[in-house]
Amino acid sequence: MSEPDRALAGRICLVAGASRGLGRGIARALGEAGATVIVTGRSSEAGPRTDQRPETFEDTAREVEAAGGKGHPYRCDHTQEREVDQLVSWCLRRFGRLDAVVDAVWGGNEGYDGERYPDGSAFGAPFWRRPVARLGQSFETSVYAQLLLARAVAPAMVQARQGLIVTVSFDTAGGYLGDVVYDLAQGSMNRLTLAMGHELKPFGVTALGLSPGRVATERVRDAGLATEAFETPAYAGRAVAALLADPDVARHAGQVLHVADLAQSYGFTDRDGRRPERFVPQG
User: pTM of the prediction?
Assistant: First the structure.
């Protein structure tokens, strides 16, 4: 995608968790391809921001517009069932349908300064030294939030007999991810993707997972870890755009797909023209 071809013009997409990070990169890439993108998050210009960070979902909506798409900001806490239901109802009233929903909600790193979480524990500490409460928070802002959104959008997609649900996670099939809380949360998200893919496929709806590598998000840069990252959020965004434009995307139902593998098969690159290879954890 060196020059966007507007392959997604007219498509209605929802990107959840798009204030920053992978969600923002995906929303922007969909905008580059001409899509209409509803961007959600909790960090707003008019209210509280996660960890007092500067990025907001309104910023992301403007980036979608600047990229050539149509951006619509919407504040939503995706751990609150009522707010999620209201979001989906608004989308369906406003646009009549949702062609694609991308769930990039992940609050597992909130309060992490690059070394410690607010409870004092470190990423990768032995499980007997990790407070159990951290697991509940990670599950609430990952698999629980994922289920709330998918449950809200599925009825309309099933009725229309079309639609794509993409969950951003990290593939656990290659082995342990190096931290008990992170591994359990990601593994649960992937199992839910498998279940959704199996149950939605007979109705023409495709649910799949998307696994990026080490990504240079805003948090990663601010924590001084950018030198350990190999790709930008745009790489995952272009993967989503390619999947949505693929008329045979149903063949991927229930699978967790690697961005690097999709880059090879669909022919897209990261922003700098490179094609980073699949990241393999050394855990």
Answer: 0.91
